[in-house]
Every structure is written in C-alpha cells, then in structure tokens.
Amino acid sequence: MPGFSGGGVGGGVGGPASAPPRAFRPSRYVPVSAATTFLVGSTTLFFCFTCPWLSEYFSSVIPIYIAVIFLLTLANFCMATFMDPGVFPRAEEDEDKEDDFRAPLYKTVEIKGIQVRMKWCSTCRFYRPPRCSHCSVCDNCVEDFDHHCPWVNNCIGRRNYRYFFLFLISLTTHIINIFGFGLVYVLHHRQQLDTPHAAVTMAVMCVAGLFFVPVAGLTGFHMVLVARGRTTNEQVTGKFRGGVNPFTNGCMRNISHVLCSSQAPRYMGRLQSPQSVEVQPPFVRPPLTEAQLEAKVLDNGIQNDRHSTRSKISLDQMESQSADAEPPPPPKPELRYPGLPRADTEESSLLTEAPLTPSMFKYRPPYNSPGRNHSAITHPNKMIRGESLDSPSTSILQSSRQPSYRSEPSSLDGATVVGGGVGVRRGGGERGEGPGGPGGTAGGMSGGMSGHSLTGRSYTSYPSSLVLSTGGSHSSSLRSAHTAHNPLATLQSEGTTDTSYKSLANQTPRNGSLSYDSLLTPSESPEFESAAHELSPQKPRALFSSKTIMSQPEVMSPSSPLQGYTSPFLSAQIAQQREGQLLQGSATFSSPHRAYLRAVSPPPPSSSGPPESQHLLHHNHDPSSRAPRNPSSSSSSPGARSLEPPVSPPPRGLSLGKSYSYTGEAGPQYKPQPTRGGTVLGGGGVGGGQQAPQSISRPVLANHTTAKPGGGVKKVTGVGGTTYEISV
Amino acid sequence: MAETHSLQDLQQPTVSSKVYVQRDYSSGTLSKFQTKFPSELESRLDKQQFEETIQTLNNLYAEAEKLGGKSYLEGCLACLTAYTIFLCMETHYEKVLKKIGRYIKDQNEKIYAPRGLLLTDPIERGLRVVEITIFEDRSIGSGR
C-alpha cells in the first residue's frame, strides 16, 4: 500500500556495510554479568579462603594448576564474548538490485550431492550462505551460526565457536577442580566447619555444584555436535534427522576443523584498501561475434541483469509484440523497476544508458496485461518486504491481495509459459512458500492450466531460458509475494499456510493440495473471506487480461468455489478438510490424500475452487510431488501468524534424484523467543520430499504447539525446551 | 550514480553494471568461487583469463583454510598465551588474505582495468561474491 512505500526504500537502502544501531537494552547484560560475577567471584573466594591451606597441606602446585585452568576459562570466556562471531556485512545496494522482489525467496545449491536451500535475508539483502542464519537478537547474519548465547551475550558462529567450546570444557574442568578441592578442604576440617573459611568453601562448593550440571550437560552436548559436524541450530531444528549432513567430513576432521583451523577472518570493520587502479577508456576488447551478442540477451537473466544492451533488446522484443495478443515476455529487470520508488538508481541508470524509448514507458504504469496488475501490486509487496518485521497482520492482508500473481509454479510446468507472463521464477530457485509460482496473471492462468501442469511440481531451481523469457512480469511479485509471507514466516513460523493461502488465490497447488484450500476459503474463516474479497477484484482483472486462461472466470471468483466442479470425491475431502481445519489447523484428514491436505491444513487460501479441484485430481496421480512441507498442526491456527514452510516442490523436484535435501534455514537463534511466534520452521518441509510420497514436513521450531496435533503429527522436544511437531 | 556526459568527466568512467560471481558450495563451506564465465563479460574479457583468475583465488583460499601443522601450532600458541598473541602476531588466514589482496590488485592493474573492469576483493563482501564492476565504454559510442 502507499503507506509502505517509504518503508520499502528505507529497508533497502538501510545499512550499507554495517549493522544499524540498536537500542541499549540492559536486560541483555544480566546473564553475562551474572555469569562473570559467579565465575570471578567464586574463584576469588576460593583462592582467598581455600587455597592457602591447600598449598600448605599438599603443595603449591595445586593452586597454580587451578589458577591456570581459571585463566584459560577466563580467556576463552572473553574471546567468546567479545569476538565477532562471523557477522556478514550488509550487502551493497547494487548487489541485491536484481534479487529485489522478483527473485525467489530461496535458492538451492547442491553440496556434496545434497540439496541445500539458501534463504533470502531481507535485512541483510543477500541469500544466506549455507549454515548462515540471522540472529534476531544481534540483528545480523552470522556465518556458521550455532546459537545466540545469553551467558556471553554474543552469537556463537564460525569465528568464536572454538573459544566457546574451549570455554565450556575449561569451565567444566574448573568447576570440577573447585568442587573437588573444596571437598578435600571440608573433609579435612569437619570439626571446624563453623570457621569462616569453611563456610565460604562450602558456599563456593554449592555454587560450583549448582552450575556443574547444566555446564557439563552443555559441554557433552557440544562434544557430540563437534564430533558430528553440526551446529546447535541444525541439531535443534532437526535438519539432519534421518538424513545426511553435507557439512561433515568425518569425526577426526570435524574435531580438527574446530580446534586446529586458522582463525577465520572478520568481515566487519575491515579497512578497505583504496582503489588505486585507474580505469580509463579506451578499453581492450576481445573479438566478439554477432551470434554471441544475440545469445547474450537471453542468458543469465536472473542475475546481473542490468546491462543497457539487455534492456534495449528487451524493449525491442516488447515493442514487437502487441499488448493484446499474448502476454509479452517478462520485462527485463530495469523495466520492472520503474514502478518502484527506487527512483534514483533506476533513473540514473536509465539516463546513463541508452536513450529512453517510448516502449519503456509502456511498462511503467499498469497496462492491459498481467504485468500491469503486477506492477501495481508490487509496490505493496516490496514494501511489505521492507517492512517485513513490522506489521504482519497488515502485510497478510496486503499479501492476500496478490492473489493470482503469486501463483505457484506447479501449474506452469507443462503448459506454463504459454500464457506468457506466467512468470515462473523457477529459475531462481525455490520459492518460499508453496510452489513458487510466477506471479501476476500466472495466478489465474495457472489456475486454468493447472490441469496440465500438475505433474509439474518438478520445481527445479535451474534457470531455464524458457522460464526466463516468460517469467517476466509476474516474477516481480514472486519475491515480494513470498517475502510478504516470508517476513511473516520468520516472525512466526516459516510456512506458507495462512498467509500464503490467503494471498494465493487459486493458484496451483501451493503445497500440494490447492483444491481444498480454495474450496474452503470463502466459507471458512472471516479472514479468508476478507482476503477473498480483496482478491476477487484482482483476480478478474488478471483473468481477463490473460487470454490463455481457460477456466478463469470460474476459477477466480472466490465466492463460488465449487463452480464447475462437483466431484463427490472433492466434496468428501472438502468436508474432511473443513473439519480438520476447525481443529485448529491440524490436519485430521483421513483421506488418502492426507499428505498434501495436511500441507494445506491451516486456513485454506481464498483461492477459487475449480482450478484447485482440478489440481486435486491431478495431484491424486502424483502424491509424491506434493509432499506437505508444512506440518499442519504446528503453528497454524486459523488466521494465525504461522506460516508453514513454504513450498516443497522445488526441492522435491530436484530431490527426486537425490538422497536428501534440506533447507539451510534454521531458527534465527537457538534460544526460543516467545515474541517471535513460531520462528523458524527449521528445515522447512524439505526433508521429506524425496523420501516418500507422503513427505514429511520438517519439524517446526515453534514456541507454542498447537493444542491438537493432527493425524500423524509427532511432537518432539528439542534441547533447550523447544517443542516442535513433525508430521509423520 | 548519474554523471554528466562532458569531456571532462571522461576521466572518471561511469559504472555500467556489476557482475557477481557467486560462491561454489559444491564441496561444502570452503571458500570457493564459481568459475562459470558470466555472460556479461563475454564482450570484455577472455574466458580463460577469467577462469584463471578465479581458480587462483580459489587456490589461495584453500591455502588459507588448510588444516595443517602450521595452523595447529598457531592455535596452541594462542591458547597458551591466553590469546594475547593475537595482539602482536598475524594469523595465517590474514597473511593469505593480504596475499590475495595483492593478487587482485595485480590482476586489476594488468588485465581488468585495461578492459574496463574492476575486481573487488571478496573479503569486502564477506567472502560471498566476487564483484566485478563493468565500466561503461564511451569510446566506442553506444554503451554496450
């Protein structure tokens, strides 16, 4: 919405290579102060009251030994506290230009044959490298994020994990020393227990004994983690449960990596060497053929798409097509910018590049094509992304207006692109929620084409030229749509469910079973109805603009979900689904298609029925593609914040041939934060994909568990007291 | 950044675009960059030169992260001195990073600047991307 326009820009321009200043919160320092006080205080008392006798009675080696261990503990404690854990500087504005809101929420990379998902960090403006996570306490992305430790008031990441680990070991040893020698003292002074020395020694022993249990437990836990090559984050979110850890190199190598590797460099606060190299034209050029120039246009469209040549050529392409015929190919990145408030960079780039052609302006304001609707909506989307952490509720509504624009890819697989504009942004990778479909009209179109496409859920993350050429207009809504969800996801629990369903009108099976969602939406909850209302005006527009949509008119109207479709199977399932939804979003379907129904479980989207039912039918044939990634029960209460892990299709599609896939996203921090709702959906739903047709959503790190787990949902308690549910 | 097109301004060529060479995670989280030649550079640079540059960078990073006796001794020494050694001594990784900085500067001077390109040290981007800045070539006429 208009009000957010500033926010989006602000968010994007944000902090160039540093973290923004945060408010001083004294409560953050309480645990670390307490830890320091106990450590230093107890040890000092011990040295003053117990050690003199020890050195007399036994030898002076003992106090020296205790002092050495204590110094080691203190040194490691200071390093763990004050050392930069491996914070990534915010990405430069130029870097994320092309990844703005058109790009998918997730990118998949293959690590040793295992698919790993990299999530877009809206705060830091880059795709988080594997094992990187964003700490909400520190508001930074940390490399090899382990957890945020309140006792040292610092994140534990790549750079300081070693010190943290050594701190734990040395602290355990120190506690054992204190307790042991204190015990020796007390046993020798049984008759003089009323002396202050004995009293102090006993007090110190009590403190030591009290801290011994949790510290030793944590030490043992981390020893196991180091041996297995996992981070706390990965362990707690169950990423590698039953799967393969791509980051392990064997026990010995893992241990030596932690203890013996060279100190990793810091990224923040580096002195940037001034650019001393002069770049002056004329420039040397290698010989270039015409064919190469032609080919250049369609290549590598996702990234670095800012060349003026490209924009020019794309303009030509667009000019050559009539707007009323079929949807034009997606406008090139520069053209998509016009609608956004990033005027300075765009305008400057436009000015310095080729002279503006009239066709460029054709795409600026909304015109009679999917792209236009799209651009009109992209603003709110973009803004939503920028405001991701601010107002989930409003953004939910906003995102819900992106109805058809946020369609899912699945429908696009086969027929796809035809309609043009079905911005299948598959090239970019997976989508945050549901099958990241192209945005814009694609929604409507995909609805119509769902019948053909459903097999598709082979959402692969490979960029295909076809996709790129057609993805276009709607792709812009992709990231924004997803990010709209996504920020919510990070706030709550990553997952598509509510919001994504709301926003996705009919679309292709977002998480597998679209039909139910759409059918249920209008009558289910008021939120959906409002969303549906919001959607309805959008949808018809999108529909009409796209000629290729087949059953659009019916499909799109949320008010008549069952138009054109009266399959008894569907109605039975719908009934089941409704029932299930009433049970707080947990999937209680007993239908054979429970797998994907469950994925849909939380409030059904306000999409229309018929296309979904078509999807459903097609899905019946292809249950495996629909692995529900969202643990139905967990975090989804109707209209609640929870966003189930987005889509499974992309990884699944790829994972069919792979052994394992997992999402690189984990909770922002190990310590659960109630304010953040479900936080991370942890491994998202990827895990199960390739395993079985009824793929299992990865456990969700939810701060609260839904009251009633749905069928086949298992509650698991992780370390640290967090519980999450896994749909089995 | 908008610049007027005056002859005097030609001394500072404008940035046409930036190409980002992403990390190659196929063998884990080791620092390695993709050697795939970006299409935007096709008209500016030879593929072999680019690949050679990236490959050398990868080798240097591998050397920095090598788990060898040297890094182990360094760790032990640091532990024994309660990490005060870090105040005076430079770690192995930092030494290699300096080497990488020199290499990039050298490459820029010899190969990339004459072609209107500029490599940015990936450490400035958190070792996530190698940023190659493409400068607009006004001498030929229309920008490409």
Bulk shape of chain A = elongated
* CA distance, first residue to last residue of chain B: 17 Å
User: Largest interface, counted with CB-CB under 8 A?
Assistant: A-B, 75 and 75 residues
Largest sheet of chain A: 4 strands, mixed
Mean pLDDT of chain B comes to 86
Q: What quaternary form is this?
A: heterodimer
Beta content of chain A: 5-15%
Mean pLDDT of chain A: 60
| Structural domain count of chain B | 1
**Number of DSSP helical runs of chain A:** 25
Order of helices and strands of chain B: EHHHHEE
Protein name (chain B): Golgin subfamily A member 7
Keywords (chain B): Golgi apparatus, Lipoprotein, Membrane, Palmitate
Main location (chain B): Golgi
Membrane topology (chain B): Lipid-anchor
Which tags fit this structure?
heterodimer; A: 728 residues; mainly alpha; four-stranded mixed beta sheet; two-stranded antiparallel sheet; 25 helices; 44% helix; disordered N terminus; B: 144 residues; alpha+beta; three-stranded antiparallel beta sheet; 13% strand
Map the helices and strands.
The complex is a heterodimer of chains A (728) and B (144).
Chain A: H1 5-13, H2 29-49, H3 51-57, H4 61-82, E1 106-111, E2 114-121, E3 126-127, E4 133-135, E5 140-142, E6 147-149, E7 154-156, H5 161-188, H6 196-228, H7 232-236, H8 251-260, H9 290-298, H10 308-320, H11 333-336, H12 343-352, H13 358-362, H14 370-386, H15 392-400, H16 442-453, H17 465-491, H18 497-503, H19 514-520, H20 526-545, H21 552-556, H22 568-582, H23 594-600, H24 609-621, H25 649-655, E8 661-663, E9 713-717, E10 723-727
Parallel strand pairs in A: 2-8
Antiparallel strand pairs in A: 1-2, 2-3, 4-5, 6-7, 9-10
Chain B: E1 15-22, H1 47-64, H2 69-80, H3 85-88, H4 92-112, E2 117-120, E3 129-135
Antiparallel strand pairs in B: 1-3, 2-3
Helix pairs in contact in B: 1-4
